[in-house]
Amino acid sequence: MTQSSRNIPSEILEFCERSSVALKDLKDPRACIEYVKKELPGLLCNRGLFIDIIKDSLRGEGFLDVQRPTTFDNELVLYIDKDRLFSLRMYLWGPGEFTTPHDHNSWGVIGPASDGYEVINYQREDDESREAYARLVEVERVILRQGETAHTFPLKAGIHKTGNPTEETLITLNLYGKSLPRGYINGFDIENNRVFRILSPRRKKEYLLSKALETLEKM
């Protein structure tokens, strides 16, 4: 765990410690998802917990490091299991904000702390033989209420777009399982049938450094 347990709200710490014990014995991603979908609503429906987290963070007194670099700029890391079995993250969604369609490196369960969060699931129809090409078709669209959850799977089995179609700012909790060592996720441009890599800030810097070195060495 990256944060000091003394600073983490007891509700989150207890949830994560229970999850660590339970998930350690579960090998099937579907079983892991089923467990988390039963447990996560207890946090999502705790309005006071989110109020306290936000107020503490705005005062600079919370356990969250809001300056810590993450893949997405609306992402805050709440907890990372010491054995890397899972991580719990909080996402903030302004009115009308959506992700680009993307896949995942792990299974995951997501849910909102208030009504209105939208999840759009896709299926990839091409055979992945053409570089930078992908053809997606929408297969499901749901609006989640407070405490309801959706889930995802690794790689092309878990392609979705999520976001906030409302005029309010929403919060979601996302619990992700152990990540595959791919180093990136795929983003998708549906209109142009394109696929591209999304890198974390650190990996993007490493990638650009290596490419810059290649350029200099060719001169």
UniProtKB/TrEMBL annotation:
InterPro entries, A to Z: RmlC-like_jellyroll, RmlC_Cupin_sf
Origin: domain of life: Bacteria
Name of protein: Cysteine dioxygenase
